[in-house]
């Protein structure tokens, strides 16, 4: 049976380690839910008798000698959980609550803080805060290490336990103690829990026909929202954009279908040659083999693109960035992405529980594995903060001969100062240095492309 055709099939590429403090808390990279996934035919399903005896003996001894009574259900559930979680950080046992939350697949609104987190060296690490959520507004940053939750150390705390402690009733407070790189002292945050309403797409004009789209995560309607944003930007630009900056920084991922659809918007299969791949997977089980291809058309009509990424860009964001990079459709700017390139499959154990195990790896069109390596930007721009000088404005950076006292006027009668470069946001260099550099790169790409077109027309 083809899992992708089954009514219980769902595919996700994001929400690192399944933690978004939401009811979609186990939506992992490439995760599928299946009710019938055959094991590899070469894998033996027999078990050594001596190992079974050792296992049952251990259960018997625990029941006999443990300091307090413990039920068979507790022991077997703990055994399954320990067995699965020992495989890798993304494999886990799903109890009744976890499985119910997963299969309900309610998305777009949830309660919590608005954080994507994972486990790192025994503590909880922030992958990224979601824009305009309590965690984001409180100042939590990607890379922060959560040392304690409500004065309870996270050292040795499971990811699930941490998530449960951070969840709570809307309006209540959770206290986070954070270790941040570059800070000598621990930081304390008192964050009020709230219902999280996630708007995945934001857009604006950067001036002179250059558009900007921020994609926070890949939701079911993100592709439609991106399409609408592009059309709106094109209208503002007078019909055609000179270029587009697509911001995937701190995007933890989301739905696979959304990542593929958005990739396809910018990839015209008629211009890709023989390799029309967007993404593909490899795994031991036949049903874990998957590939997605581009189709004709490009919403930007070939206008140049810059994609911004960083260490908080993961899963679906890496699939999109990798596809555009491999096909030379966009220049990637920023820092290396997270490196979440594995596929998890949820296998029901009964009607109420299941296990989530890694079954495949994602690959970019050129055959690069994302897993543990991430996507390297074409141009590295570190997340630095340009400090504004009280004696220097952004406009003063455009300094030329015409600014000199007593300069000679132009013999052709050009008004001094008329050559000054203008910007819709003169403070962009201070507000967002990576975006500032990305926009400069995009402008250079546009100039080069226009020059090439003029040369081609003359020939």
SS field, number of helical segments: 10
Compute the separation of the termini in Å.
56 Å
Strand coverage percent: 15-25%
Class from helix and strand fractions: alpha+beta
Gross morphology: globular
**Poorly predicted runs:** 1-29, 104-108, 415-424
Major β-sheet profile: 6 strands, mixed
In short:
The chain has 459 residues and is α+β, with helices and mostly antiparallel strands. It contains 10 helices and 22 strands.
What are the defining features of this structure?
disordered N terminus, alpha+beta, six-stranded mixed β-sheet, 459 residues, six-stranded antiparallel β-sheet, single chain
How do the helices and strands line up, and which of them pair or pack?
Elements (H helix, E strand, L loop, with lengths): L11 E2 L18 E2 L15 H17 L6 H14 L6 E3 L1 H9 L4 E4 L2 E6 L2 E7 L4 H5 L6 E5 L2 E2 L5 H8 L6 E7 L7 E6 L1 E4 L3 E7 L2 E6 L6 H15 L6 E5 L6 E2 H11 L10 E7 L6 E4 L11 E5 L6 H11 L4 E4 L7 E7 L5 E10 L15 E2 L47 H4 L1 H26 L1
Helix pairs in contact: 6-7, 7-8
Would you give an account of this structure?
The protein is an alpha+beta fold. The chain has helices at residues 49-65, 72-85, 96-104, 134-138, 159-166, 222-236, 256-266, 316-326, 428-431, 433-458; strands spanning 12-13, 32-33, 92-94, 109-112, 115-120, 123-129, 145-149, 152-153, 173-179, 187-192, 194-197, 201-207, 210-215, 243-247, 254-255, 277-283, 290-293, 305-309, 331-334, 342-348, 354-363, 379-380. Helix 6 packs parallel to helix 7 and helix 7 packs parallel to helix 8. The chain is globular and about 100 Å long. It starts with 11 loop residues before the first strand and ends with a helix.
